Task: structure prediction
Amino acid sequence: MKVLVTGSSGFVGSNLCRALIAQGHQVRAFHRPTSMLRLLDGLPVEHVIGDLTQPEGLPSAMEGVDAVFHAAAWMGGHDQPGRQYAVTVEGTRSVLQAARKAGVARVVHTSSVAALGIPRNGPDPSSALMNENHAWNYRPDYYPYGYAKYLAEQEVQKFVASGLDVVIVNPTLVFGPGDLYRQSASIITQVAERRVSAAIEGGINCVHIDDVVAGHLAAFECGKTGERYILGGENLTHLQMLQMIASVVKAPPPNLVLPTWLVRSMAVPAQWFQTFLNLPIDAALLRLSGFYFFYDLSKASNELGLVSHHPVQQAFEDAFAWFKTK
Result:
């Protein structure tokens, strides 16, 4: 097939290009003129220059295309909600409009588990795993990235209702080789540089990039139109994640867990002074302390056949090894 990949120069997009080429497909790599192309070096792709905020370039990019993997996303900070909306929501709408006009057979839309909102965890986090039926339930201004991803999924559903074949995938927190844009900001790099001395309460699901790519390909082959599929790995508390990373990078593991009330109280002042504080995460995300973003992966397992996963420690090891070569 001839396949268009948006966000082709990024972490997920470039790995998708590599996997599609390995399957024998012709890949058209859509990216901005200013994008770093290091992750596409040596790949036999057809480069197409464009910008999701300038939709007039999309029809020509879609010419002759059989399938689209829409992996482009705005990865900037939380301080640019206008840019976030333009790229993530309006950009998705423009991609789907162009795909429909071009007669594209199927689109795989890369969303995020952030689009599901926040968990309703009780005293036992494992008793309230989030799944694909979870609906957005949080203040948009507290989590603009997640809300933009949610709105983009609403755009997908509108096009599905009008007859376009689109499948949604929702990766959790992705690790592995090729995370070029987050290299210096990666929690792995920060633990290795001994910049993380404490954890916050709560937890997260982490997944290897290879499993995310495999999930995209399986969703294209087996996914049901209009359905979303969580692509995840292991549910870990923040402390478990940091201690595992510390063992990989040979750094002292944090043993202190800051209480939720303290971390959340720091969110607003930390946003004021974020430029000077050099925090390990975006200050806006401090409000999410105490939540256990743990997910049920059974739908992707049952419907897409994703039954095996790389260990998360391998994801950390592969990412750290890649970082050290760059």
Summary: Residues 126 and 263 are 22 Å apart (CA to CA). DSSP finds twelve helices and twelve strands in the chain. The longest strand covers residues 26-31.
